[in-house]
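The pair is quoted verbatim as follows:
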Amino acid sequence: MAMRTGSMHVAKVAKKYVTKDGASRESVAYLLRRTYRDGTKVRHETLANLSALPHATLEAVRVSLTGQVLVVPGQDLEVTGSRPHGHVAAVHAQAKALGLPGLLGPAGRERDIALALIIARVCRPGSKLATTRWWADTTLAADLGVADASTDEVYAAMDWLARRQDAIETKLVRTHLAGPDNPDRLALFDLSSSWMTGRCCPLAARGYSRDGKKGLPQIEYGLLTDPAGRPVAVRVFPGNTADPTAFSAIAAAVKDTFKLKDMVMVGDRGMITSARVQELRELGGFGWVTALRAPAIAALAADDGPLQMSLFDQVNLAEITHPDYPGERLVACRNPALATQRARKRLALLEATDTELSKIVAAVAAGRLAGAGKIGIRVGKVIGRYKMAKHYNLTITDDTFAFTRNQEQITAEAALDGLYVIRTTVRPEQMDTAKVVATYKSLARVERDFRSLKAIDLDLRPIRHYTESRVRAHVFICMLAAYLVWHLRQAWAPLTFTDEHRPNPADPVAPAQRSHGADHKAATKTTTEDLPATSFTALLDHLATLTRNHLRVAGHDQSSFDLLAIPTPTQRRAFELLGAPIPLTLK
């Protein structure tokens, strides 16, 4: 006998038929049925025809019969939590696409915390304590399982990451410096500094500050990049380290740690000096692209030298040779815009120096300042501030002071305004003259990386760690974050004010020009896709408004779920440019 007990459900029954005029038609009915077993057979009993019900009512019946709880909008559904998600999800998606988690090391607690620190440095740079408080309010900590990470665990993860620095950088260097995307095997290097807080770190020292913080101790760090400016390695030095010393350290690391040969090191004239060139010769397997300092240029521009202004009558660059530079090519360049800028700056400094020195003359004449020593100290401060000592003749006695401009020296320096000479070992068949100039000017990309590291994106400074190992780990985390930012900026260029298609200049010496597309973005504040154009940091802030919300049915504690906010067109496009869907969770 059939058992007439069983679950009910809404069945959609569709029948096709042909009308008298030969047209195919389909009728659809929605039936309330009970399923039961009759012996070994499963049968369906129709209880009612629901086809006449409105679609919303029909759907409510169907859902209710499945055992799900129906809610009344605005009454029965509660939002129990809402956390920013879009920005950390986007950065994590880029990190996964680059293989960064695997690059850091084997899976484990330390790697999860280290990865979270890197992502947090991109999204919300801050101290380690501030970071652990911030990431608990986003989906980052919960999804990576580090919400309960203590301060000791964070420092342990930094130590773990620092021990793996050489292995990580070796993989990055071999991928980007020795890979097919760098056929000329160029490696760019430059040095910068950042100030420290506290007095305990052995790396902290007073030196030449590139941040304008002359009264504070600092550290220095050198960044190694590929020709496109992609960071691949970083080295930290005491704050009083000279540029040439730092360059020697990175050259040795390229050869001994990274095991690379036949590399061409690119650095500015303060970095790759004549002494460093000799070191590269002794190391073997290195070429270089750098520039000559002013005294060397003056020697080439002497009356009997090869560098004469007539070289630039028709063009802005010319290749010359000199026996003092055997086996090297010298590319002389003259930039009229740079010449005008330097002349204007020199005149302004001279006028400012004249003003201050005239005040000293008046003080000595009035008897308010006397003694050759005291007068000399006062004069030294002025000419040291404006760095114009070489352009003045000074006469100091116990009761007199006089000065005149050294016009001969000023004229000699002005003759070299706008001139710079690049020296390289790269052969003409590998790199023509114009490309040599462009390669040297590409050092501007390293300067852009430093701006991103220090102020624009990652806030590397000030540095609050005390131990040498933690300072190095902090800078390394910032470098890996800069590696992420470099790729994110490339991917999101269509949404930001970045010039996506900067034209190649016909004259490599002339200043770079923006494309028409970049001008259009700047003028209209919109992209070519009619989306709002924004800065990189503003785009991250906008992505943070894409939240993941935890909802619960009132009175049913077990009926809860996560739901993403509806993304804006800009947020959708940001993930499309990364080639990733918008994930509900990071893992």
Notes: Residues 338-414 form one domain. The chain has a mean pLDDT of 88.
